[in-house]
């Protein structure tokens, strides 16, 4: 088991720069907000009747996170699609945000062409590739960014760009209400979290390190609700890709209606499952009261569990807090397994066989 007690110790295992990308997350947020704010988007886009975000893997996470964050407040229905074709109801009244970090994701390019054929209002997010070519040819608005603040160049580590880009586009179009001051607060918070969760923070005072140590040799089960479900999805994905760890995500209240009865068998599973319940004072009262009862049932079944309570003041800040926490936990867990978190050999193998 490798050492996670310092920056130098982590970098001995982290050859591909995942730590550097985590540290740069506030710069990703700053760049995306400033750059997207300057993009001219046609006025008619603000009249869309529904919104579709299409993307795969890490490129879809920005949409997932904003979907959960703005549920109940966004002024038009928002859906996430990770398929090569879009639903039949997509039409000229639909805003389609197509997101592909590389700009070459086959499924997203197919969905983009489908959106264009359906005469939808299209906005693209990418770093270049074929998507940029298509968007330029069709003279469609886009955020084509240079990912200077993502030295690992892994799409999953560029979430500061994708989350903030989607949020800023929708704010510009008046579908949601995030402002410049909101993102100033997010950037300030993320800077503080880098000190709290970073590798030079002592293990016994660092929540990210403590959680990574608890999750080693376990199957993490992430539990989240309401505005944090999308960020919980990102946490799970980063455990998969960075830590090379099987992980699950469930939401309260849904899990209370089935999962609690699934903790009995097989008995061997109790040894490996480890629940992480993500609590928040910003959850609704109905949801908050379910967390201690859920924890009680989990522990009565002999399954390990921890609670992390989000500390930030707003729902937007809590989403980014969880992004930073999950990123560090996944990095530290990879190091504890003596694994460089950057390479994704099985995903690459799969793509090579298609």
Please tag this protein with its features.
alpha/beta, 2 domains, single chain, 46% helix, 354 residues, 4-stranded parallel beta sheet, Rossmann fold, 14% strand, globular, 9 strands, 5-stranded parallel beta sheet
Summarize the structure.
The chain has 354 residues and is of the alpha/beta class.
Task: Describe the protein in words.
This protein has 354 residues and is α/β, with parallel strands linked by helices. The protein folds into 2 domains: 10-182, Glucose-6-phosphate isomerase like protein, domain 1 (Rossmann fold), CATH 3.40.50.10490; 204-336, 3-Layer(aba) Sandwich (Rossmann fold), CATH 3.40.50.10490. It is 46% helix and 14% strand. It is built from 15 helices and 9 strands. It has helices at 7-13, 18-23, 25-37, 58-69, 106-117, 129-137, 159-172, 180-197, 207-215, 229-241, 269-272, 285-288, 290-300, 315-336, 345-353, and strands at residues 50-54, 78-81, 94-100, 121-126, 142-144, 219-224, 248-251, 273-279, 304-309. The strands form 2 sheets. The chain has a 5-stranded parallel sheet with strand order 2-1-3-4-5, sandwiched between helices. The radius of gyration is 20 Å and the shape is globular. The two termini are 36 Å apart. The mean pLDDT is 97.
Order of helices and strands: HHHEHEEHEHEHHHEHEHEHHEHH
Alpha-beta content class: alpha/beta
Name the CATH homologous superfamily of the largest domain. Glucose-6-phosphate isomerase like protein, domain 1
Query: How are the strands of the biggest sheet laid out side by side?
Result: 2-1-3-4-5
Query: Total number of helical segments?
Result: 15
Outline type = globular
Secondary structure: helix percent: 40-55%
The number of domains is 2
Provide the low-confidence segments as ranges. Answer: none
Q: What's the overall average pLDDT, rounded?
A: 97
Protein name: SIS domain-containing protein
Family: Belongs to the PGI/PMI family.
Domain SIS: 41-175
GO biological process, one term: carbohydrate derivative metabolic process
